[in-house]
């Protein structure tokens, strides 16, 4: 069984071990002990009972394999992007050009550098070890965050942002970065993305293009990847779109990956979630469908499991599921359908 919970203070060695399983570079899980230790401390502060509204807190969840105690993945939520660390993107705007004498009208798509200092909440930092990608673990890792956000909506903005990884070609290069960013910054795409992930964003303000970029002036093969996701990101995109996320006019400033937005209250997992009182601990029949289950507490726990629902709305849980959620009969469990 897998259980999603907040990262603990003593789990730096486990996070480092998880980072060593990453194939290539991942900004959300770099092999940098100081960065990961800072992330743990940031998350511990975020889960404080004293937090009442979004002020840029960073919540880090880990996916634990209950039998071995190993960490199989991470996912995060930033309560608000911007602040002292601006959030940058390219905003796609359309300019209408008219020449009345020749009866000519043109609408040109233009990239405008955009920065946010007090933005929406963001779901981020998703990574799942390849050998753990089974039995709905990816859905648990991604969607359980919405149970927590729905239970503590005051800690988050009403709007949620999700940056999707942009297209990378078969040579491992980002066509958009090679056509745009590479001319202004001496490092390759992965270095720029890594530095930004560590919070070193001054170079974006100082070096990246300040003036609008007319998209038709870019090579056709570069225009084609604006708003396109990495091949490996396509399942995550489909899952978020099924949750109610839609594409915005913003794309990532480095690889032009799409930026999705949704209303927290309208996210499917939040909208369809319901609390239920646990009547007893009984293993449901094999025909009972798996659901996303959580304890709705700051000491958050979420897992996949089936329920036996009674006529009065109360439910029965399997003992191992209740143990994973740290719940007992008489307590409340939050449940929602997986799909």
User: Given the helix and strand composition, which structural class is it?
Assistant: alpha+beta
Poorly predicted tracts of residues? none
Shape: globular
Helix-strand topology string: EHHEEEEEHEHHHEHHEEHEEEEEHE
Mean pLDDT: 91
In helices, the fraction of residues equals 10-25%
Query: How many domains comprise the coordinates?
Result: 2
The separation of the N and C termini measures 19 Å
Query: Tell me about the biggest sheet?
Result: 10 strands, mixed
Give the helices and strands, then pairings.
Layout: E1 2-6, H1 12-19, H2 33-46, E2 58-65, E3 71-78, E4 82-99, E5 104-118, E6 121-128, H3 137-151, E7 159-163, H4 175-179, H5 189-197, H6 202-207, E8 213-214, H7 220-223, H8 234-242, E9 246-251, E10 258-263, H9 268-271, E11 274-281, E12 290-294, E13 302-306, E14 308-309, E15 315-317, H10 319-325, E16 332-337
Parallel strand pairs: 6-7, 11-15
Antiparallel strand pairs: 1-2, 2-3, 3-6, 4-5, 4-9, 5-8, 7-10, 9-10, 11-16, 12-13, 12-16, 14-15
3D architecture notes:
The protein has 339 residues and is an alpha+beta fold. The chain has two domains: 246 residues, 3-Layer(aba) Sandwich (Aminopeptidase), CATH 3.40.630; 64 residues, Barwin-like endoglucanases (Beta Barrel), CATH 2.40.40. A ten-stranded mixed beta sheet has the order 1-2-3-6-7-10-9-4-5-8, with helices on both faces. Strand 4 and strand 5 form a beta hairpin.
